[in-house]
Design brief:
The structure is a single chain. This protein is an alpha/beta fold. The protein folds into two domains: about 250 residues, Rossmann fold; about 80 residues, Uridine Diphospho-n-acetylenolpyruvylglucosamine Reductase, domain 3. The chain is built from 13 helices and eleven strands. A six-stranded mixed beta sheet has the order 3-2-1-4-6-5, with helices on both faces. It has a five-stranded antiparallel beta sheet with strand order 7-8-11-10-9. Helix 3 links the parallel strand 1 and strand 2. It is elongated and about 75 Å long. It starts with 6 loop residues before the first helix and ends with a strand.
């Protein structure tokens, strides 16, 4: 007997449908959620091999399992073949068994192909265990995309994850780039559930009769994200009232919109102002000074990134900006991959000899 369509199931499906439509990768068939909630493998098999393929990053947790079920239903109706990539991080004794369990759940949902990859996470990585595991996971995604020919990996970051990311960025003083949180699309990574609460994904699994896996790392307070989830956000909700997570997610979305507009402006201005110099590139001081700081700083970062393939910290960017706004005859500034100096009314970025 097929479970009935519930609000939680419908919310997840609607989010997946919107994300697939946003990337416009498949010939949309305009389908919508119906009163039944399971999808037979034959629905996937009926698609031609030429149909675009997307892989769900499936851990077996409630978020990714709900996403897999939603994608299994909506994908074929939008012209997408849906597979899965299961990454075994090897961080727990039974990780291989859990990875195979998740792979089995993907097959039961009708996903194909289902790829399982074990990665190695260095315990002493200077970036920390969370960053090391994330880097290994995304490298596995890249390999899966290459091996399968898939166009996207769908990951199950939720609105709660977005709120946690914004709070962590705020606490670390990482600037607007960090406060923008996660975007719907980053390269070949698609995040359909950024508008869905974690409680909804769990309810969706329950309504579908799916049993999610609860990763013990998600309860380990040694991780900063877990402390934000278990302690900080609940306190904010208690003291400030409900809706804090949604407000943080809205803030991230607004910052992404603003940043996108400023980045586009910087691209246009850089095309007009930048001139190739010996062993580098230059920008006119007068034009940089005439622009507001947000645009000036973007122009500085943009030319260094485009010409030398390096990123500047905020402090490095401000040091270069002082060659424009606080010029006292100071000498060249050492930057990653280049130097910056003020010469004849221009800021010249030169490759190191």
């Amino acid at each position: 007997m097929r479970p009935r369509l519930t609000p939680a199931i419908a919310d997840v499906r609607r989010a997946v449908r919107g994300a697939l439509a946003a990337v416009d990768g498949g010939p949309s068939r305009g389908g919508s959620a119906t009163a039944t909630s399971t999808i037979a493998a034959t629905d996937v098999a009926s698609l031609p091999a030429s149909a675009p393929l997307a892989l769900v990053a499936l851990s077996g947790g409630a978020d990714s399992l709900a996403l897999a079920a939603g994608a299994a239903f909506e994908g074929p109706r939008a012209g997408w073949r849906i597979g899965a990539i299961v990454v075994d991080h090897g961080l727990q004794e039974d990780s291989a068994r859990q990875a195979e369990r998740a792979a089995s759940q993907a097959r039961e949902l009708g996903l194909a192909p289902v790829l399982v990859e074990r990665v190695s996470v260095a315990p002493g990585d200077p970036a920390g265990p969370e960053a090391a595991a994330r880097n290994a996971r995304y490298q596995a995604f890249d390999r899966a995309l290459e091996a399968s020919g898939a166009e996207f990996v769908l990951v199950a970051h939720t609105l709660d994850d977005q709120a946690e990311t914004v709070l962590l960025g705020l606490a670390r003083g990482s600037g607007a780039a960090s406060l923008q949180g996660m975007a719907l699309v980053t390269g070949r990574v698609l995040r359909p559930l950024l508008g869905i609460r974690r409680a909804t994904t769990r309810q969706s699994c329950l309504d579908l009769g799916l049993t999610p896996w609860d990763d013990p790392h998600n309860l380990d307070p040694s991780y900063a994200r877990v402390r934000v989830r278990q302690r900080i956000l609940p306190v904010l909700e208690e003291e400030l009232g409900p809706g804090v997570a949604e407000a943080l997610a809205r803030t991230a979305e607004q910052l992404r919109e603003d940043a996108s507009a400023l980045d586009a402006m910087a691209d246009e201005v850089a095309e007009d102002l930048a001139e190739h110099a010996e062993a580098g590139i230059s920008l006119p001081v007068a034009a940089l000074e005439a622009n507001p700081p947000a645009l000036r700083h973007r122009l500085i970062r943009l030319v260094v990134s485009a010409e030398f393939g390096r990123s500047l910290t905020r402090q490095q960017t401000l040091e270069v900006a002082r060659l424009v706004t606080d010029w006292h005859g100071q000498g060249p500034i050492d930057l990653p991959g280049c130097t910056a100096s003020r010469v004849d009314g221009r800021i010249v970025f030169s490759a190191r000899g």
